Amino acid sequence: xxxxxxxxxxxxxxxxxxxxxxxxxxxxxxxxxxxxxxxxxxxxxxxxxxxxxxxxxxxxxxxxxxxxxxxxxxxxxxxxxxxxxxxxxxxxxxxxxxxxxxxxxxxxxxxxxxxxxxxxxxxxxxxxxxxxxxxxxxxxxxxxxxxxxxxxxxxxxxxxxxxxxxxxxxxxxxxxxxxxxxxxxxxxxxxxxxxxxxxxxxxxxxx
Length: 207
Description:
Layout: H1 8-16, H2 23-34, H3 41-55, E1 59-63, H4 69-77, E2 82-87, H5 90-103, E3 109-113, H6 116-120, E4 126-131, H7 138-145, E5 149-158, H8 165-168, H9 173-188, E6 189-194, E7 200-205
Parallel strand pairs: 1-2, 1-4, 2-3, 4-5
Antiparallel strand pairs: 5-7, 6-7
Helix pairs in contact: 3-4
């Protein structure tokens, strides 16, 4: 059945567990809901936050930041690093700035307008590379940027299960593209996919 990966009752239970409140995140989630704007969601955001706490990265580069929801989770968890937000729409980046300012964490971010892959090429020794751009460009993005990742860097990619469509609709264009990306990541990197929401891939370079 399309529309979810986890059993709905399990997902409902996960969402019922106690969580810290953040009024800025709540406002961002409300904006996403009203404008049908896809975001990684609260469960995915907590994954990003935890990885950042453990990794303590100096440089996080997002390829496809939208209005900054996932970047906000990174920045909140980052102690000494910077998050580079990229989006080709200036209105999204401007909105991200406003949310970061509300949260008092704008000093942890760099806001860039333009092609995320091209911007990403400017940065070396990326500790966390987050992919959330057009799905058709995922493979292009990692091939262009994998040499810019630090030796112990991490790659995170959202939407890698497409709500289960990679299995249930394997012949669709998006499914074929994402399946090819996933196969590449498992061959070239040590990778795992967490089956929450649309699926989150986490990978590091093979030793």
